[in-house]
Amino acid sequence: MGNEHQQNACEVERWGLFEITVAGPSEGNPFQDVQLSARFEHKHRTVQVEGFYNGEGQYKIRFMPDSEGQWSYSVSSSREELNGASGSFSCVPASAGNHGPVRVRSAYHFAYEDGTPYRPFGTTCYVWTHQEAAIQEQTLASLRTGPFNKIRMCVFPKRYSFNTNEPERFPFEGSQAEGFDWTRPDPIYYEQLEQRIVQLQELGIEADLILFHPYDKGHWGFDRMDAETDAFYLRYLIARLGAYRNIWWSLANEFDFMQTKTMDDWDRFFRIVQESDPYQHLRSIHNGTKMYDPSTLVLYDHSKPWVTHVSMQYWELSPTNAWLKQYGKPVVVDECCYEGNLPQRWGNITGMEMTARFWDGFARGGSVGHGETFLNSEEVVWWSKGGELRGESPARIAFLRQILEEAPGHAEPIDRLRDAPTLGVEGEYYLQYFGIHCPAYRELPLPEEKSFRIDIIDTWNMKVTPLEGTYKGLSRVDLPAAPYMAIRAVAVGEEQ
Amino acid sequence: MGNEHQQNACEVERWGLFEITVAGPSEGNPFQDVQLSARFEHKHRTVQVEGFYNGEGQYKIRFMPDSEGQWSYSVSSSREELNGASGSFSCVPASAGNHGPVRVRSAYHFAYEDGTPYRPFGTTCYVWTHQEAAIQEQTLASLRTGPFNKIRMCVFPKRYSFNTNEPERFPFEGSQAEGFDWTRPDPIYYEQLEQRIVQLQELGIEADLILFHPYDKGHWGFDRMDAETDAFYLRYLIARLGAYRNIWWSLANEFDFMQTKTMDDWDRFFRIVQESDPYQHLRSIHNGTKMYDPSTLVLYDHSKPWVTHVSMQYWELSPTNAWLKQYGKPVVVDECCYEGNLPQRWGNITGMEMTARFWDGFARGGSVGHGETFLNSEEVVWWSKGGELRGESPARIAFLRQILEEAPGHAEPIDRLRDAPTLGVEGEYYLQYFGIHCPAYRELPLPEEKSFRIDIIDTWNMKVTPLEGTYKGLSRVDLPAAPYMAIRAVAVGEEQ
């Protein structure tokens, strides 16, 4: 937190948040009537950043510097009294654990802006920030000890099965009973959200923020605002949140279930986000679909240039290789059913199946998102409200994450071995996953010219068993003929 | 066996086998040089049947009568000495257990010709009749106590992993070392095959006979005979085997892996079989495919008029509903991977997974085939050679078969309930299967106007738990939130 809200400080760390607060008029509707922005300059570069009204006569401009050294700024506004302020700060090296925002590094990979590899191990708590404070604190405690480095979460509240409690505050002034003022965002709502985003940042968790969703059906009306309000909402949101380095923009959850929006609307929203965000945070969109009927699957065309990566809901991971090739962008299967016991098909797979889907998706070069849906008497279900994790998969996801953190950052699916999905770097590293398949042995076609150490990995029991000796060329590897096994082969260094 | 080979007997049971044996010339090549046939007449009907040369100067004509009453026949031949024989017999009612050949009864169903419903519970022992006699007897013993009522088996021997022993006899005279005489079938080979087909018939098992396959690659050359030999082979085979009521014609196994045959060849083979078989036994063809890559899936167009039902290799059962609609014919997923521990992906699923695929496919209105591939020191692997069954799925398949034998014969997939595959008859019967899904409860939308008894079925532990009382309308059914459960709801009779 130390450096997160510095005004006119001498020093801001790289990818930290520099904030200017100025007093100004509060009459009329400053949210819409007052234009405010700042020019930030560093050497040859200029970055134009929009400010926002924070209520009570307070205006703010937030900025995330991405280069070390001296930055200067000057403020301009449609209102004389806000115009002309200027200053400077020094951008110093990032502190430990701050690697910058996550970027797409290649057709397969993400990395933090400082080059550190990033593999998404996401979870889903759609409206955890709309619950009472004690539950929010419990969610943070669960995340602190959990394996996740990304969370999908909504700006708007959600009304759905096991989730019908009315939140205290909303992105707009008003309430369900009294209606909303679509011209006045609620700054307190946003300040509370921002606090949670900073807390996620401290835990090393990316906030994959969902900007629209269909779980409203007119109850509040956030799913059917007019085009002007949609655009106003997006610009205000981005002015407030864009400078937090751990933000991703998920344009929607189950976009195709929103009957009031067209494909043109989604294109337009993408362009607004792309134009408004000075930092070009990651952008994607998540599809709904009848999960039991692939013929109804509706996808947004992720090959469009403003989509940075593929966000997918699908219950099989086998198409991952094909999606990677089709779109030429990293693939995140953000939803593949949830571990739990709901009556609904998407919410009642076992921890074993969830774990298998994670391994399958990662071995195919994609990444996979988690969610949990166990019924409980408090009706606090993780996937919606956060709270406690009860399932068997998070410990296994932590184990997988550890295995992959030991893998080369540039590992890709190895096509020649794809009868069992294999992630690797030819000549260096192979991680082959068998899922439900139970071979008594496998013949692994390793390169002839190098020696490899081989481990058998029991992905469910989280056990790594190294084999004796080293292997080269076509190598028979005996296996326990049980499900959920993997083989890892790592080239032995020159010194061996 | 009693009625299977009757010559000029006074009585033959319906769908039994009536056989005429006549002596004739043995010089030259009677297999190809001598034309022999008979006209069978019953009331207004005439059936023309081809005979065949059985070696040693012996000629035979076989006939399966399908109507009770008096039949007469007259023999004609290109050779004077075989010409003109005539006679008659009386076709009497079928004995117990003889329901006639299996027919397609509707877009979803098979039935025996006497109307008894038939659901295929197939297994696969490709070349069990090419093994030494002791193994063949062991296979029959396994089948006797097993759950299967169909077996996929090849006319030609097979050369493949775990299957490289040379058989003693072949469909043509000769051997691999000396070559084959493509103009002379080996009658002793066929007599041995026929004995096995009759033994299967006694066990109530349909012989789904595979006429071509690619597991030869020129070793013997049965996969690359010329067009004339292909046609001669088919006509001879059909003349010999067509009168056995438990024969099905599977044009090929993995037809698309036979690089010497074209789609036109397969059409031609279908038409030869269709024209030559007086009994119109069931006809289909089985696809190969790269099992790990759906994009390489090549299907024969099962909508062609000479295809009676869909025979499919696929490792997922979820498309079953779509195939049923697409083709308007019963769907048999003859291969969906095998229970076992081979290194190959298609041969190493668990018994639990095999059982789940059976339930899934049947609940979707199709049927599913079994195979077993456990490595063993004798190298007698069920899927290829028969022998012993070692797996965990056959007992569960028997349990499923019993459940389905208690179901209405005309049960079809219920589309309105397809978020979990459901087989049933609206208002009468519902069988809903959850597979890997673990709901803690389900709300089953039963009709309002009838009462139903409900059972919870644990498909793996083979346990049926009846619920107390009766249900109508939208009914909450509590479940153990464990995988592999099913719900059965049966309408209570009027007298209740």
TrEMBL record, chains A, B:
Residues 109-370 form the Apiosidase-like catalytic domain. Residues 419-488 form the DUF5605 domain. InterPro entries: Apiosidase-like_cat_dom, DUF5060, DUF5605, GH, Ig-like_fold. Signal peptide: none annotated. It holds the Pfam family DUF5605. Residues 11-77 form the DUF5060 domain. This is DUF5060 domain-containing protein. It comes from Paenibacillus rigui.
